[in-house]
Amino acid sequence: MKYPGDLLSDIALLKELADASDAISFERFQSQDLIIETKPDTTPVTDADRAVEKKIREILSSERPADKIVGEEFGSPESIHPNERYWVIDPIDGTKNFLRGVPIWATLIGLVHR
């Protein structure tokens, strides 16, 4: 199967998304004013989680408007059809560590084509 896009361009965009994520999450890590809420599934979410996902969505909407986005904090589209590309985002995987000041967490970004 042929790759549905320009692989080098997608890798460059992925690096841009990671850099944008780092800029936000590193600034908020160990912040005294970190805002923490509880999601309906009783897991924590911080303002950093939401800010990272918003920024990634903003960049993707500009750079890859035809691609869909599935994100932990802001959900997914109604449907994803065969041959559609979509990005999967977990803005801060390890939120409990992040909010406790434990430096073991990451931003997960994947691009899927099925």
Terminal Cα span: 11 Å
Mean pLDDT: 95
Query: Major sheet: order of its strands?
Result: 3-4-5
Strand content: 15-25%
Radius of gyration: 15 Å
Overall body shape: globular
User: Count of DSSP E strands?
Assistant: 5
- How helical, in percent, are the residues? 25-40%
| SSE topology string | HEEHEEHE
How many H/I helical runs? 3
Given helix and strand content, the structural type is alpha+beta
Return residue spans where pLDDT drops below 50 for at least 5 consecutive residues. Answer: none
The largest sheet, given as strand count, sense and whether it forms a barrel, is:
3 strands, mixed
Describe the overall structure.
The protein is of the alpha+beta class and 114 residues long. Helices cover 39% and strands 24% of the residues. It has three helices and five strands, in the order H-E-E-H-E-E-H-E. The strands form two sheets. Strands 3-4-5 form a three-stranded mixed beta sheet. Helix 1 (7-28) packs antiparallel against helix 2. The longest helix has 22 residues, at 7-28. 21% of the residues are buried. The model has no long low-confidence stretch (mean pLDDT 95).
Provide the fold topology.
Blueprint: H1 7-28, E1 36-38, E2 44-46, H2 47-63, E3 68-71, E4 85-93, H3 95-100, E5 106-113
Parallel strand pairs: 3-4
Antiparallel strand pairs: 1-2, 4-5
